[in-house]
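Need a sequence for this fold. Nothing fancy.
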């Protein structure tokens, strides 16, 4: 679900970018992911904060209990968890579309995301119109030349294991985004954190949290066609299983300013999920065998060097079944003089690639530095937020408060 936009050309016209050799970044991301051994997930303690939100199942067992304070809040909205799991989540009445940061609820509905339901999920057709472009032309760099997206090598678990596909339900139906397994500084080797875009979890101003959010690492591991997936082994589609978001956090900038057109929230369009498996006890990082650090240094575009964007584009000419990547040197995109600038690279990926991680090599290590947020209607470039102190605070709060869940 990438929000496309009406593109504009900054003064000087279209800038031709030198296509860099892919060897360094691609080789660094080619992480062989062998499932590791380990103990059960840590038991968490800590209370929900303002930026992150809790969810869980009401039936106990190995599933999380909904915290009492959130359960009371749900009752205030007239929501019964059991009714929710029986289909009540399909009620998108404005009064029941929970929107505040602490209102997120996502109880596991085991078996909901069957392979055929995953394949039917669509990218959202959203547009962003760049208004008052003349006011930011002196800040934005010239529009980059398109970079043709390249299919990732299969199997994905050997070449880009931390990358996966995010599924969720919205008032418009089942939708898709992309995401990345990231490390948890407070739980080394046992992370359950996924990085994605804010608009993949929350509709922004005037809207609320999306529902039934699940992450599937290395989705369609062997890049099978739609016809081949009809009778595919479930392990080929979801080699590491389905992981439900039981906690979620996105920026106040996105919640307050995000819109179907990107809006003022685009520069803050990032989110962190804490996930748990439908079945099993090992952490996401142990199961996948790989996770990436996040680089919060927000380097200037001119100093960032080569970046690569990974994701599962779903709008034509793609169908959301295969993983693609683009490599380019970033430039600056300013949507408003009062907002932080965004990174922009040439890339032909379409809707569905939203939330997919942008990576760069720092001291020989591949790190996540941004995520896909917006792009033009003609699918020639992508833009993503710079991850600075606010993004780091969001991540640290998630790690410290909920990481051990």
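Here you go.
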């Amino acid at each position: 679900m990438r929000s496309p936009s009406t593109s504009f050309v900054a003064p000087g016209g279209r800038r031709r970018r030198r296509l860099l050799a892919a060897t360094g970044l691609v080789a660094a991301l080619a992480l062989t992911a062998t499932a590791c051994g380990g103990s059960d997930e840590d038991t968490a303690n800590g209370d929900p904060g303002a930026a992150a939100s809790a969810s869980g199942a009401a039936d106990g067992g190995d599933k999380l209990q909904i915290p009492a304070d959130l359960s009371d809040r749900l009752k205030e909205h007239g929501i019964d968890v059991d009714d929710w799991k029986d289909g009540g989540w399909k009620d998108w009445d404005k009064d029941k579309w929970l929107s505040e940061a602490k209102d997120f609820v996502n109880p596991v509905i085991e078996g909901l995301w069957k392979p055929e339901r995953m394949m039917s999920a669509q990218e959202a057709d959203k547009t962003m119109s760049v208004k008052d472009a003349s006011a930011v032309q002196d800040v934005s760099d010239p529009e980059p030349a398109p970079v043709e997206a390249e299919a990732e090598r299969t199997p994905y678990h050997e070449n880009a294991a931390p990358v996966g596909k995010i599924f969720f339900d919205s008032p418009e139906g089942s939708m898709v985004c992309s995401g990345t397994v990231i490390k948890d500084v407070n739980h080394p080797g046992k992370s359950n954190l996924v990085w994605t875009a804010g608009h993949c979890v929350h509709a922004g101003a005037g809207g609320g949290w999306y529902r039934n959010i699940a992450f599937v690492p290395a989705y369609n591991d062997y890049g099978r066609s739609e016809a081949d997936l009809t009778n595919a082994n479930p392990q080929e589609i979801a080699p590491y299983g389905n992981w439900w978001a039981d906690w979620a956090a996105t920026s106040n900038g996105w919640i307050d300013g995000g819109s179907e057109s990107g809006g003022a929230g685009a520069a803050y369009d990032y989110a962190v999920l804490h996930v748990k498996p439908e079945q099993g006890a090992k952490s996401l990082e142990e199961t996948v065998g790989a996770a990436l650090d996040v680089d919060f240094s927000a380097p200037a575009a001119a100093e960032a060097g080569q970046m690569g964007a990974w994701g599962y584009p779903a709008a034509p000419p793609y169908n959301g079944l295969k993983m693609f990547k683009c490599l380019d040197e970033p430039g600056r995109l300013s949507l408003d003089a009062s907002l932080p600038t965004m990174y922009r690279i040439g890339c032909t990926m379409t809707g569905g690639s939203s939330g997919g991680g942008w990576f760069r090599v720092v001291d020989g290590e591949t790190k996540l530095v941004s995520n896909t947020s917006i792009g033009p209607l003609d699918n020639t470039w992508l833009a993503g937020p710079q991850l600075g102190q606010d993004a780091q605070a969001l991540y640290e709060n998630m790690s410290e408060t909920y990481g051990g869940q």
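For context: The first helix runs from residue 23 to 29.
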